[in-house]
Each structure stands twice: as C-alpha cells, then as structure tokens.
Amino acid sequence: MSMNCCPTESAIDELETAETVAIEISARLCTNCEGQSRPVSRKTVLLMLKPHLLKEAMTGTYSFCSTRDCPVVYFEERGVHRFTTDDVRVRVGVKATEDPIPLCYCFGFEESHIRDEISRTGATNVPQRISALIREGLCACEARNPAGVCCLGEVNKAAKRFLGLDASTRWDYQSSAPEQRR
C-alpha cells in the first residue's frame, strides 16, 4: 500500500484553507525573527540536517520558519536548538533569493522551470505534471521538503506569480528579474 502525502489538484483550495487555519491555530513565532512558523516532524528535521548535527535534534519539538530573510530553518519550541540554512543538506526554496530556487523537492522542479516554460509558451503545466505524479502516489514530501509539507501550494503560488496573476509583481523575461509594477 502506498502512502500519498499530497492532495490531488482538485483538493488544493480546500487544503490551502485548512493549512491556513492549522497554521493560525498552531503557529509558533520563530525564536530568531519572531515570524510565523509551522510545526514540523522531528523525522523531517533529521532527514534535512547535516550528519554532524543529528544528535542535537534527537529530542524536542520543532517548527519550520518560512520567513525569507531569516536564516533559521528549524527551531526547538521549548529548547535552545536552532538550525539555519547552513545546517541543512538542501537549499530551502522559501529562503533562497537566487537560482536555483527549489519548489518541488520530490520531482526536482525549480522556479526557473516555470519561468522558462512561461517565457517559451505563455503558460505552464508544471503544477498539472506534479499533480499527476502525486495521483500516482509518487510524492515523498515529508522526507524531501524541508517544510515537511506538500510542495504543490508553493508551486501554484509561483506559477500564478510568474503568470502575472499577482498584481504587485510581474516577471521581466528579458532580464530574468522581477519588477515592481508602478
């Protein structure tokens, strides 16, 4: 029996609403930046940390800080342990500001894949391709995504942003840089 940690495309809106409520209920403030965070399993933390740090994370309850400018990735909720972007084995997409910016850790999609596809065709089917793979039970988000949750929400946000559905930002495909709309 395969375990599927990700919802199908039809359940994304419902999931995003449920995630927002869950985050608001269980949100912890980052011990470094005081930004919002979300609980993450110790298994995810252990899978992400560099080997020499594993012993430090064997106990405790951890949260994931998603604030872009904060170097802390994981912090112990009732303890002293904090782990930064330098302590994890993978690039943390929500904290990255330069390519490659990972979006989907299970299947290797980055922001550049979506930008390039939109630049070439005017659209992207990356979210649909990931959804098809999820429906086949091939995701492993808890083990591969530093946030320990399905990546499809971040993929959809990036696709909307690059398609210009975010009114405050558009993508300049010639220079590959975001520009603020005036």
Note down, in words, how this protein is organized.
With 182 residues, the chain is of the alpha+beta class. It has one domain (9-167): N-terminal domain of TfIIb, CATH 2.20.25. The chain has helices at residues 12-26, 42-48, 111-121, 126-135, 141-144, 152-162, and strands at 37-40, 62-65, 72-76, 82-84, 102-104, 109-110, 169-172, 177-180. The strands form 3 sheets. It has a 4-stranded antiparallel β-sheet with strand order 1-2-3-4. It has a two-stranded antiparallel ribbon with strand order 5-6. A hairpin with a 5-residue loop joins strand 3 and strand 4. Helix 3 packs parallel to helix 6 and helix 4 (126-135) packs antiparallel against helix 6 (152-162).
Please name the defining characteristics of this protein.
alpha+beta; 8 strands
Task: Please provide a brief summary of the model.
The protein has helices at residues 12-26, 42-48, 111-121, 126-135, 141-144, 152-162; strands at residues 37-40, 62-65, 72-76, 82-84, 102-104, 109-110, 169-172, 177-180.
Secondary structure elements and pairings:
Blueprint: H1 12-26, E1 37-40, H2 42-48, E2 62-65, E3 72-76, E4 82-84, E5 102-104, E6 109-110, H3 111-121, H4 126-135, H5 141-144, H6 152-162, E7 169-172, E8 177-180
Antiparallel strand pairs: 1-2, 2-3, 3-4, 5-6, 7-8
Helix pairs in contact: 3-6, 4-6
Number of DSSP E strands: 8
CATH overall fold name: N-terminal domain of TfIIb
Gyration radius over CA: 17 Å
User: Which term fits the overall shape?
Assistant: globular
- Please list the strands of the largest sheet in the order they lie side by side: 1-2-3-4
End-to-end Cα distance, whole Å, is: 52 Å
Task: Classify the helix fraction into a percent range.
Answer: 25-40%
Percentage of residues in DSSP E strands: 15-25%
Quaternary structure type: single chain
Q: Main beta sheet, described?
A: 4 strands, antiparallel
Total of helices: 6
Please state the structural category: alpha+beta
Order of helices and strands: HEHEEEEEHHHHEE
Mean residue pLDDT:
84
Highest-level CATH class: Mainly Beta
Query: Any low-confidence stretches, pLDDT <50, length ≥5?
Result: 15-25, 167-182
How many domains? The number is 1
CATH architecture: Single Sheet
